[in-house]
């Protein structure tokens, strides 16, 4: 088990989570292994055979601490969350904005710009720090392709066009992804992105991290009353 930022990850099989005062207690075979004040965490992620008391679930729901349950290998199972704001005016405005194609395209362009800019930053950092360990030509070409996509995003492009740009950017990034793995190459080899189910160790790790990211993003959306 480990607390990372404001999320508690419980991976110890057979662990039992309970409430004691204002704290979350993690026990294994009736022995307390961890005691943490609830106000210091924003979420709990449980992997595999991890049990929780109903009192703790209710306590976390009241304190806006999201709980997610995954298989031991990281496949999402369920989520426990307290009441979400029922602001009808906010919901109506969200649905109106969702039907506004110009607004939706503008928001998508903002998100996609951030995604592709970060992808290019990762590639350029690899070129800077590990040029001698990777194929600099392939990584550099992928960075250029993503840069071209970023230039296209400066224009007003409809949603379908943005989907095409995202797909091309993702293809460019993952075409060079194997070069970014500079150690334990015999254990971690990336050929292509696959999922449901992931077919190799690298894709398993990627899907696992996306699941953890989903937990954090959904919690953030619900905290501000957005509809996830």
Structure characteristics:
single chain, four-stranded mixed beta sheet, five-stranded mixed beta sheet, 2 domains, Substrate Binding Domain Of Dnak, Chain:A, Domain 2, Ribosomal Protein L15, Chain: K, domain 2, 228 residues, 7 helices
The CATH class of the largest domain, by name, is: Alpha Beta
Could you name the CATH topology of the largest domain?
A: Ribosomal Protein L15, Chain: K, domain 2
Structural class assignment: alpha/beta
Please write the string of helix (H) and strand (E) elements.
EEEEEEEHEEHHHHHH
Task: Look at the structure and name the CATH superfamily of the largest domain.
Answer: CRISPR-associated endonuclease Cas1, N-terminal domain
Give me the CATH architecture of the largest domain, please. Answer: Ribosomal Protein L15, Chain: K, domain 2
Unreliable parts: none
State Rg: 21 Å
Number of self-contained structural domains: 2
Number of strands: 9
Report the mean per-residue pLDDT as an integer.
83
Strand order of the largest sheet: 1-2-6-8-9
Helix percent reads 40-55%
Measured distance between first and last alpha carbons = 28 Å
Shape: flat
Largest sheet: 5 strands, mixed
The amount of beta strand, in percent, is 15-25%
Q: How many H/I helices?
A: 7
């Amino acid at each position: 088990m480990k607390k990372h930022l404001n999320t508690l990850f419980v991976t110890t099989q057979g662990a039992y989570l309970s409430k004691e005062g204002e704290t979350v207690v993690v026990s294994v075979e009736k022995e307390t292994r961890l005691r943490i004040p609830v106000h210091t965490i924003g979420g709990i992620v449980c992997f595999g055979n991890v049990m929780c008391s109903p009192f703790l679930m209710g306590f976390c729901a009241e304190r806006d601490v999201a709980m997610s349950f995954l298989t031991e290998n990281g496949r999402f199972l369920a989520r426990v969350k307290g009441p979400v704001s029922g602001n009808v005016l906010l919901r109506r405005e969200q649905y109106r904005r969702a039907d506004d194609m110009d607004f939706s395209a503008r928001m998508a362009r903002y998100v996609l710009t951030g995604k592709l800019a970060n992808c290019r930053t990762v590639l350029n950092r690899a070129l800077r720090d590990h040029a001698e360990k990777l194929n600099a030509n392939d990584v550099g070409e992928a960075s250029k392709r993503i840069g071209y996509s970023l230039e296209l995003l400066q224009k007003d492009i409809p949603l379908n066009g943005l989907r095409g740009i995202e797909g091309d950017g993702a293809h460019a990034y993952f075409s060079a992804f194997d070069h970014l793995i500079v150690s334990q190459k015999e254990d971690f080899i990336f050929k292509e992105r696959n999922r449901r189910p992931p077919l190799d160790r690298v894709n398993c790790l990627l899907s696992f991290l996306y699941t953890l990211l989903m937990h954090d993003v959904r919690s953030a959306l619900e905290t501000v009353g957005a509809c996830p």
